[in-house]
Design brief:
This is Poly-beta-hydroxybutyrate-responsive repressor. Pfam families: PadR (PF03551). It contains six helices and three strands; from the N terminus they run H-H-E-H-H-E-E-H-H. It is mostly helical. It has one domain: Arc Repressor Mutant, subunit A. Helix 2 crosses helix 5. It is elongated and about 55 Å long.
């Protein structure tokens, strides 16, 4: 392994299927147009969202009845689609939350074995102490 290989980081972009529950999570609390949702995802920590794929994914979510949309013409300028989570979307989100909770347990077990002195609360407390 060369020193260049050691410096390379794996590409850890958000997987497309993980993007769906993050989108639904944001739509659970507010009805927004696509661009606003994209900004919320970026603030959440999702990096490098391809605009074309993002809107295709929104259309697919609508086809799958996980979200609905309607045109908003109340603001000045062109009409915008406002997206809303459906009951089926909420159920899908609940299933993901349960799955992620189970996955979190596995991650906690992994890190406990990997580094028995690491705990998220200890790590957070250490960062606060450094400030």
């Amino acid at each position: 392994m060369t020193s260049n290989d050691a410096k390379k980081q794996p590409n850890m972009n958000t997987p497309k299927n993980f993007l769906i529950p993050i989108m639904l999570l944001h739509l659970r609390d507010l009805n927004v147009h696509g661009y606003e949702l994209m900004e919320k995802l970026t603030s959440f920590g999702v990096e490098s969202i391809d605009h074309g794929n993002f809107y295709r994914l929104l259309r697919q979510l609508e086809k799958d009845n996980l979200v609905t949309s309607q045109w908003d013409t109340s603001a000045g300028g062109p009409a915008k689609r406002i997206y809303t989570i459906t009951d089926a979307g909420q159920e899908y989100l609940d299933i993901w939350a349960n799955s992620l909770n189970q996955y979190q347990q596995l991650l906690n077990n992994f890190f406990q074995l990997y580094n028995p002195f690491y705990t998220p609360t200890t790590n957070q407390r250490d960062k606060q102490d450094e400030e």
